[in-house]
């Protein structure tokens, strides 16, 4: 069924509607778990769901098969996102034909963000320039088959100048999409309803009468909230921060307070007669609880009553087909570990979660983006021309003298202060760090530096380091790491050459908390699958940094070379009682005695940033066998 018909029906019945957005998960296990989650979330009564389109057609197969399963098997009306980025017409044809074959009658026609490795959008030869071209193409080639939605930006599109002329021009382009046959508008996320209402007024004044469906991003935890707000440059009203700042260290409280704030925002939207908005589109980020809590808080009319329970049938997830009793008791506790609760991956969402979670890689529905203009990059990082210039930037960041790196959008966390000098030295030695945590052996959960989670608990961490390094420095480092059985590592280059000394594919918990009356909470893990999924993003960010410099410039070439040649490495010092152990293989303070220690003057040489000298020395005498 077309979404416009569903919206008209809800309006005739005088009830609000809501819908959910999901993205194709990054890992196979995440996908399997998402099917079960969507099936459960069907009971929250969404009028329809939509599935995002991976940047540049990446995961196009996955978007298409998610649409198929949701439409045909789970029985939810789907809207498939479709972008123009890196999509020649044949690929667009394929996607539309598949959607039609799967019974999907709704497409969100988008231009898409710039392709991988580029900070500006360029059309693909033989493809489309703007969303409007896609809208026209769909109606011309599939007359009557699809209801077509388009995107609208209450705060203005980031590429449009924020001036009266810019805003006027953007409205004309939105009107052009509508005149080309768009049936309704999904908005970008926002938290300021005044901005939304002002935009709706301008949309209506421009003669656009089609329904507007506002995009609502629940506040799931502090990190995600911050990431999205910064990434999309979303204006947040001061009362949001007044309420969230005091609880930002406790994810459970952030979600509770955030739910109330967002619910109040939704009530304001639905209650504004002039705007005439009748429903909400919830960006779930593939998580269940935020959407559920928001709908519970809103108590919208028609919630639950309208939903007939699904008849029991085997799970869509193959390894759960043998489970015979659902949903409360499971046949086999170990096998059903993941589904013991519907929110096993919700709290607290750690630095990087469990790759089995459908929510793993939640930025992946959208293109990876460094989110920085060339001008900002030059002012932050200048124009590096030697490896030591780059290493110097990393070292300065670790010492708190630089606000951002392409991989680190915020200054180092306070917990990093205890290892600042070691990190800075590592960078000067050629190990470009992008992530770290010190070891922690049972500090209280309300500790100002290392604490997190509910009151009355204790926190533990294994020391962790993640960095880029040249193959020349990697080999001796690995030999030194392998002398200490307490240290595990993964190293992978851009093309996927993986080295590790781990013997298990399963997760290695690196942060865990013990709290009164709860299971152990293990928010941060290291494991091969998520590391491999993450490495694409890590290298991509570096290449985007390079692309901010003009073609053929020394800075672009230098950073591209580093990304193309380096390995991304993570190491875990599993003995969390030995805080210094993680730095031992780097021999930050030692002198060479010809027996496995760095040669006299090498540190000084490295500090001066003479990369070739470093590599030569470490290869020649810095490493022993
Ligand atoms: C609800 C929503 C869902 C999204 N889902 C996805 C997704 O699944 N996958 C993904 O990769 N991205 C997604 N995005 C991001 C989106 O692709 C980007 O924000 C993109 O930059 C804009 O897409 P658009 O369809 O609005 O493009 P367009 O309407 O083509 O606009 C792009 C830019 O060009 C300007 N413009 C518009 N028409 C013209 C014209 N005729 N001539 C010249 N300039 C013009 C606009 O003002 C704007 O600055 C989504 C965004 C929203 C709001
Ligand atoms: N290994 C994996 O499987 C995997 C998967 C996904 C993401 N990640 C990592 O997770 C990060 C995103 O999580 P986050 O938002 O918690 O990260 P973050 O940028 O907030 O940093 C996490 C910790 O690393 C420290 N840190 C930040 N930049 C650093 C740097 N340049 N050098 C040394 N330490 C630094 C911070 O002080 C903080 O303690 C990514 O940057 C990536 O490194 C890893």
From TrEMBL:
UniProt cross-references to Gene3D superfamilies, sorted A to Z: 3.20.20.220
Annotated keywords: FAD, Flavoprotein, NADP, Oxidoreductase
GO cellular component: cytosol
GO molecular function, one term: FAD binding
Ranges of residues in domain MTHFR SAM-binding regulatory: 309-578
GO BP annotation list: methionine biosynthetic process; tetrahydrofolate interconversion
Reported cofactor(s): FAD
Pathway(s) this gene product operates in, as recorded in its UniProt entry: One-carbon metabolism; tetrahydrofolate interconversion
Family affiliation: Belongs to the methylenetetrahydrofolate reductase family.
Protein name (record): Methylenetetrahydrofolate reductase
Top-level taxonomy: Eukaryota, Fungi, Dikarya, Basidiomycota, Agaricomycotina
